[in-house]
Amino acid sequence: MEQKTKKKSSRLAQKLRKAVQNLNVDVFGYESKVTTNIISYFSKLSKETDLPQDRLVVRIFKDRTTINVAVHNQGRPVKKIPVKELITLFTNSEPSGLFSLEAKVIRGIETFMDGFSNTHQMNVEQLQICIITSHDKVWIKGYSGIELVEDIPLGVLIKHFME
Hints:
Oligomer: single chain
Order of helices and strands: HHEEEHHEEEH
Radius of gyration: 19 Å
Helix content: 40-55%
């Protein structure tokens, strides 16, 4: 009788381990702050471009060895964004001449993109990370060309920006 209970509890333990393996807790509230910053940035972009905020997409992609960031509307580029502005998107503050911060963010993005493309067995140059907002929500999606590969939790992207 005791052995049966032990087997059941070990199976339960395995299920629990799997369930909480990808559990993230936002102890310091970074995700909510970054969400607010991204929505604020998209609002600013909307005013600059005279386009509705929910039709704008910020795309991050790699072209050979360079990380590129651009704002798109219905698949068409509207504005190219320097990495400094990408830092503003996440922090809502200007990176005043901190070249090391910019280099750190580029390294973090490259590391994330390399890992994501390896996990999904795709060429990193096909990968596009898309940031989309609607009302008070932010979605981050990974695409291979026009095919959705996976939704990316905001916390994962924040973690790689801060590496």
